[in-house]
UniProtKB/TrEMBL annotation:
This is Acetyl esterase/lipase. Pfam families: Abhydrolase_3 (PF07859). InterPro entries: AB_hydrolase_3, AB_hydrolase_fold, GDXG_lipolytic_enzyme. PANTHER family: AB HYDROLASE SUPERFAMILY PROTEIN C4A8.06C, ALPHA_BETA HYDROLASE FOLD-3 DOMAIN-CONTAINING PROTEIN-RELATED. Residues 82-290 form the Alpha/beta hydrolase fold-3 domain.
């Protein structure tokens, strides 16, 4: 049974004609809906406890990648950092998902710089374009840590939902290209496997948050006709990776009623088999992204405390 508090919070949110929170069948329309909602919402003032700075990094094609740093002003002169990959099924961009209020709170709670990477999304940029952006951002922060008052030995990766894919692929690229190992890989209900063959991918069909059909729409946008192909490269869907050795310590949390539940549990199991230190948390009664859709519930607060403690420990220990 879905947690009653979470169920009530989800039920109170406005749904579309299909009974879902977000309709991924028409990505341009969904983006416009979210832009309009963001424009209509009141923007709170930036918390003075956190300074915000935008870095613009040059890609090889000459375009620029934005990385927004949220830095606690009362922190030490040199701080650890977490590179953050926002959710959105790998098809929704940074607005409103690069929300300043959430990232400011995250920086304060985790006592670190949060570097939000505005990675490219599909279908305009199919996988692994978003992960290449993540790799560019991560290696820049490591190489130029002193320029940004960061500790190069204490930089981690974190991603939620769709952002879990490029975050995980960035960890793969870092390992394969022999870049400095991230301090931690922190994944919240990550989107990892395009095949959608697990029991939970068939069970979660009518909750209305991010169910099987939404996942199919998103992966089709990310991969096109490559979705489900037997020879798909893990850089395009990290759940396909067969060698997970050399990964950083990994934190992974997922809800019981999440379409990603079983692929997440399987990924954690395979990391453990590869000798990686893994903290796996399965939250009974939770749906996909319950901490964002039902943030005031006890289940969301419990999760937030556990996750923030994990990030702090990984970056500061």
């Amino acid at each position: 049974m879905i947690d009653p508090e979470v169920a009530a919070a989800i039920a109170a949110l406005p749904k579309n004609s299909k009974g879902t929170l977000l309709d991924y069948s028409d990505i341009p329309a969904l983006r416009e809906q979210l832009r309009a909602a963001a424009a209509a919402a009141e923007t709170p003032p930036q918390d003075p406890r956190v300074a915000v700075e935008t870095l613009l990094l040059d890609r090889v094609d000459g375009s620029q990648l934005a990385v927004v740093l949220y830095r606690p002003v009362d922190g030490p002169e040199t701080q650890p950092a977490i590179l953050w990959f926002h959710g959105g099924g790998q098809v929704l961009g940074g607005e409103p998902h690069h929300d300043a209020e959430y990232l400011t709170s995250l920086a304060l709670a985790c006592e670190c710089v949060v570097a939000a990477v505005d990675y490219r999304v599909a279908p305009e940029t199919p996988a692994p374009g978003g992960a290449e952006d993540g790799y560019l951002a991560y290696t820049h922060l490591c190489k130029h840590a002193a320029d940004h008052d960061l500790d190069p030995t204490r930089i981690g990766l974190a991603g939620a939902s769709g952002g879990g894919a490029p975050a995980t692929v960035t960890a793969l690229m870092v390992r394969d290209r022999e870049a400095p190992v991230p301090r931690v890989l922190s994944l919240l209900y990550p989107m990892l496997d395009d095949r959608n063959e697990t029991p939970s991918s068939h069970e979660v069909t009518d909750i209305g948050v991010f169910d099987r059909q939404e996942n199919l729409y998103a992966w089709a946008a990310v991969l096109g006709d490559r979705a489900g192909a037997p020879d798909l490269h893990p850089y395009c869907a990290p759940g396909r990776a067969t060698d997970l050795s050399g990964f950083p310590r990994t934190f992974l949390a997922v809800g019981q009623y999440d379409v990603f539940r079983d692929e997440n549990i399987d990924f954690a199991r395979r990391l453990i088999a590869a000798g990686v230190s893994v903290d796996l948390h399965v939250y009974g009664g939770a749906v996909h992204a319950w901490d964002r859709f039902a943030p005031e519930t006890a289940l969301a607060r419990t999760f937030a405390q556990t996750w923030h403690n994990s990030v702090r420990h990984s970056l500061h220990a």
